[in-house]
Amino acid sequence: MMSDLPANVRPVQDRHGKTRYRFRRRGWKSAYLPGQPGSAEFHRAYADIIAQGEAEQQSAASPRKILPRSIDDLINRYKKSIRWRKKSPGNQHRVARILERFADRVDKRGRRYGERPVADVSVAWLENVFGTMAETPGAANQLRKVLVGLMDAAIRMEWRTDNPVRLTDKFADGEGFHDWTNAEIEQFRATHALGTMARLTLELALNTAARRCNINKIERDHLDGGRIYVDHAKGNNEASVPMLATTKAALDALPAAPIRHLITTAFGKPFTDAGLGNKMRKWCDDAGLPHCTLHGLRKAMSRQLAESGATDAEGKAVTGHTKDSTFAYYRAKANRTALADRALSNLGPLAASNQPESDGKSNA
Question: Is 0.70 topped by the overall pTM?
């Protein structure tokens, strides 16, 4: 949890998705701390950094030279385009990080990808790049999606007449985040009683089907007339959903306090996006659910809506999805047995009327 970490230490995810802890302070040399927070190794390393003190003032490094019509040049121009400005701040940050990591990768000759001329980007080269990411197919597909937009920008700038990224193959879509079962939801509830922040987080996440970057920003002012108002991160779609009884019980169980945000740290401060994800990881582990995540609750609510008979439009009104195809994916994952039972329940009278009539004769 962010509040449990020493000053100037923040959790960060490396390119493999592993959480590491980095010390960063203006004027000091940054460093990654070994071990886990709370361990002796971790605190010894932190103490050594503090003992070394502020780094000597160094002259600012000269900026990297941007080669004309290179990938670096294209990325810089893309970030100044109208299409880029239409992206939400959160999406801009996410896409920028993906592009920057891609540009900083180095090929076998020691040249950064960012230095490659845009005209030299070929399907074969891209296939090789994606092929090196076979162990992380989700990240490869995400990079591919981002590069499609980047190379489309090159076409609009008349640097190319084609988009080679679109001719590459995607990795097969995996299951992604685990969809919590109803039994797993009850297991979490059994571990984290009413009155705990863990329980409130679960109930709000289920009730709103919101992402962690929205859940940690829900305020008391967002509760009005028995409803919860949420601005979904993607598309800025506002959703207004009725408050479920389970959510109301979790809210009523918390001690009354003049705190703006509903989900907070032990110090009454709102979680960061990463901080809430890390805390939920611990809560799930405590409940014996190491495969469950906060985002999986969004999938669980989508599934439950589909199983309840919600149409695509009704489901999207809750989840904030904009495309029918996206919610249809969750509908396809719904419990087919439950769907079949509900669909055939209305056939009872019809099925009975189609039974062969008895001729009154006994088979004895």
Answer: no
